[in-house]
């Protein structure tokens, strides 16, 4: 199977993404230790969107006792209601954006796309992406992994990747027999995507690793971060971010970075409002799942269709590490030169997805038929 590498800069004439980076981001250590009228309008629109997201997060926390399942269904229904008000969704007033989707969506095998968050995050982090995907005609679902977002399980009791990935595997298991989905995994959520490929390969049309931990057989997710955090043994011995949920005399059960470290690792280019939302929403990261070696077979995982989106300004997973992942475990397609920090890219990757769809639909469908 031929492996392709895309360069967004070279193909910019096919798709223009007008995004302004925040260049004042923190460059803290990776070790564990002007405005014209249109600009003011954009800022106002973004502020409104963030206020809605904060309100939505509070509402979800208040109602979590009354609902089963993930945040995804409630995000979807709330988003649909919100779009009925054109003021709350400025992009609906732009007819050009409304006409973008039909041409390439017709050839996609599935419009269903499942979004898997990274370490410490939850389904809430995809709120911008969900809106953009819905506007383009896709059917997004964002899941809370076990002990994440508003999932009520204590993270200290999440000890295996199987436990951590259960909301995803349950979702895939309950799909109708003839349905498939596109999986997108961000950061350590990539390990859950790999796990799902091994166990539900027939339910996954494409697996997209968004600056994700695309581990190979025999690796553990933590291995991807070893160059940044040190070896697993060193991390377990020296890290001040460890959580001992079962007491100091027992092995660590999780970890959580301090706010300043989180700003440098995940939000070095993000708006202040995104940081504020994250600071009140992140939860401890269960240690067991990222320390577990994955068993991935050629017969199952090896037949999955993998795609990788690289980010150049990520401090949590550096471009060099992403390049190493792609080199050692080559995906079908690699998309390069996609700018943004670890958190900001969650919202900004959607133009990349559109580019993927528009540029590769014909080839991907041909490859799918020939596999």
TrEMBL record:
Signal peptide: none annotated. Keywords: Hydrolase. Residues 113-328 form the AB hydrolase-1 domain. GO terms for molecular function: methyl indole-3-acetate esterase activity; methyl jasmonate esterase activity; methyl salicylate esterase activity. Residues 14-42, 60-101 are annotated as: Disordered. GO terms for biological process: jasmonic acid metabolic process; salicylic acid metabolic process. Transmembrane segments: none annotated. Residues 85-101 have a biased composition (Polar residues). Residues 70-79 have a biased composition (Low complexity). This is AB hydrolase-1 domain-containing protein. It comes from Lactuca saligna.
């Amino acid at each position: 199977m031929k492996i392709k590498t895309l360069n967004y800069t070279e193909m910019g004439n096919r798709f223009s993404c007008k995004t302004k980076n925040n260049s004042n981001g923190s460059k803290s250590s990776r070790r564990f230790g002007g405005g014209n009228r249109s600009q003011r309008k954009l800022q106002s629109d973004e502020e409104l969107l963030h206020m809605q997201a904060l309100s939505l997060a509070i509402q979800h926390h208040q109602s979590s006792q009354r609902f089963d399942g993930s945040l995804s269904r409630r995000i979807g229904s709330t988003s649909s209601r919100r779009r009925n008000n054109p003021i709350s969704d400025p992009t609906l007033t732009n007819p050009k954006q409304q006409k973008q989707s039909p041409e390439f969506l017709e050839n996609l095998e599935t419009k269903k796309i499942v979004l898997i968050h990274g370490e410490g995050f939850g389904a809430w982090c995809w709120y911008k992406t969900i809106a953009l995907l819905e506007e383009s005609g896709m059917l997004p679902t964002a899941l809370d992994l076990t002990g994440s977002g508003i999932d009520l399980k204590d993270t200290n009791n999440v000890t295996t990747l199987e436990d951590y990935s259960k909301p995803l595997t349950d979702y895939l298991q309950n799909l109708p027999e003839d349905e498939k989905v596109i999986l997108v995994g961000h950061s350590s959520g990539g390990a859950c995507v790999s796990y799902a490929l091994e166990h539900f390969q027939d339910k996954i049309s494409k697996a997209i690793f968004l600056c994700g931990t695309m581990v190979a057989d025999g690796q553990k997710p933590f291995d991807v971060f070893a160059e940044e955090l040190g070896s697993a043994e060193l991390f377990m011995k020296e890290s001040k971010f460890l959580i001992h949920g079962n007491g100091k005399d027992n092995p660590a059960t999780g970890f959580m970075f301090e706010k300043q470290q989180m700003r440098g690792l995940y939000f070095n280019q993000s708006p202040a409002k995104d940081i504020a939302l994250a600071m009140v929403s992140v939860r401890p990261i269960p240690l067991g799942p990222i320390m577990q070696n994955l068993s991935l077979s050629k017969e199952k995982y090896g037949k999955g269709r993998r795609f990788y989106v690289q980010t150049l300004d990520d401090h949590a997973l550096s471009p060099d590490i992403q390049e190493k992942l792609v080199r050692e475990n080559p995906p079908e397609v690699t998309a390069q030169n996609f700018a943004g920090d670890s958190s900001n890219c969650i919202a900004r990757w959607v133009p990349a997805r559109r580019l993927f769809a528009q540029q590769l639909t014909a080839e991907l469908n041909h490859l799918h038929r020939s596999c």
